[in-house]
Amino acid sequence: MTGSGRMSPTGGPTATWRPYLSVADVSIWLLVQEFFKAKSIFAPMFESYETQVLRQAEERGVDRRFLRLDAEGLSELLDFRALERLRDGSLADLKTISHELFRGATTTDKFDRYVSELYHEASILKEEHYRVSRFARGYDMSTEGQSYEDALDEVHEQFPRKVHGIHDLFERAKARLEEIIPGHRDDKVFVRSLYLFGEELLTDSYPEGLDGFYWVIYGGGPPEGYLVAGESFLASGFQEPAQACFERGVTYGEKLADFLADNADAQRALVTARRHVEDLRSKGDELKGSGSTRSPEDAPKGEEVA
């Protein structure tokens, strides 16, 4: 529950999760949201790091393994503010949510272990960056030249190890999350939130965005995913988003008719979605002008959509 008590049509809290929320608010959707937010923060950092290292190595005519930069050059390889945002924002939230969902007295899921390692590795990388960008300036080169060189040596070793380690951990965590998610395919908060916010959230991780993620969850892919979301909205009287879901699934099915021809789950979903579309359009004609339909914005303050 948010501070105001207002619930969204997803049936979950409207605000971004923060630690003051109760355990009951910690859902699989919030786990997915914070994971992909963290991944989207790190992805451009990783790409920028790789681009700069390869360019610097090429300009100096050396293998990247033997590239050596001064303190300023090293510090420019990573964005310190982005590192802070990653470690202290999404990764911190993700770690807390993951602990609540998976951690028991003696066991936990390996996804939770990956998340803990991500937080730990990002913390080390952040401190190494701070060391080279801040501490290096305080060395007296006339008396502490060797200490300065030793510090640079350590950062040269830590940066590639930590940056690539974090990248690999994100990929392993993503693979494990893809194994977990299908078990929540019918969770109300998850399926509604995924439809409403998934496109923007998932674009960096899946070339087809939400459609690509639906293939992870449902055997029938997007046609089945949009049907499940639509029927969830419809069950609570939200006809506008329900109809939009059904129509989007049907449109996807029409565009990839040949590809989906042998997919029984997708075909069943498309038959049901078309029937829903026809029913809703018929009801819409009957109720046109009456204002009787509900949209997501119609949920009264304090109402949890069941």
Instruction: Give the tally of β-strands.
Output: 0
Order of helices and strands: HHHHHHHHHHH
Q: Which stretches of 5+ consecutive residues score pLDDT under 50?
A: 1-7, 13-25, 300-306
Largest sheet: none
Distance between the termini: 14 Å
- Secondary-structure class: mainly alpha
Strand content: under 5%
Helix content: 55-70%
Q: Return the average pLDDT rounded to an integer.
A: 84
Structure annotation, total helices: 11
- Given the C-alpha coordinates, what overall shape results? elongated
Radius of gyration: 24 Å
What is the domain total for the residues? 2
Task: Walk me through the structure.
With 306 residues, the chain is mostly helical. The protein folds into 2 domains: 28-184, no CATH class; 188-298, no CATH class. It has 11 helices and no strands. The chain has helices at 28-60, 71-75, 80-102, 110-133, 141-180, 188-202, 210-217, 221-235, 239-255, 257-260, 264-287. α1 packs across α5, α4 runs antiparallel to α5 (141-180) and α9 packs across α11 (264-287). The two termini are 14 Å apart.
